[in-house]
Prior knowledge:
Layout: E1 3-5, E2 10-13, H1 23-36, H2 43-50, H3 55-63, H4 69-87, H5 97-106, E3 110-114, H6 119-129, E4 137-139, H7 152-161, E5 168-172, H8 175-183, E6 187-191, H9 197-200, E7 205-206, E8 212-214
Parallel strand pairs: 1-8, 2-3, 2-5, 3-4, 5-6, 6-7
Helix pairs in contact: 1-4
Amino acid sequence: xxxxxxxxxxxxxxxxxxxxxxxxxxKKAWEIFAKxxxxxxxxxxxxxxxxxxxxxxxxxYLFDKELSREEIKNLSDEKxxxxxxxxxxxxxxxxxxxELLNKLKEENIKTGVATSAPKENVDxxxxxxxxxxxxxxxxxPSKVSKSKPEPDIYLKAAELLFVxxxxxxxFEDSIPGISAAVSAGMxxxxxxxxxxxxxxxxxxxxxxxxxIIFV
Length: 215
């Protein structure tokens, strides 16, 4: 059964788990990274404290201490290099993404990406899929002062798209991301690539973009 969605003036996509199902590769990268530092990350921790959050927040959680900017950058570079190396050549869009982007373009609906992923990962994934030109704005954590679950990144997206927050539809796959979009006053549809509908605590949720109809 398809989910009917009211058309909005703008559609904003998270990236990891929404544009591409990156999280299985992030999981592998985190496992490799954690093993090196004598750490462990459970699947529950990945969902609650990793997916949808910035590396800065993740490292502070994992190491349970304050870290300098240099330490965070070095750790982030290390982990994301692992991720990109194992993901290269394996990047595939979530089912129905290309069809949706083309439909939005045909109907002149504004689009954006608002993600907690580092800029290097954003460039990597969007370039691998060759879809950068589909988006009017692309926002990573460097563009805002507070990351998800705070609403800043979605408020920034609406500002740059010149659209009221109430006229924005967001696709999200993580609990922090959904909280951020709801706090921004936007309509949200959950993508169940990583978590179930109950885990996401989202009224509307789909497995992929083939399950939606705009009305």
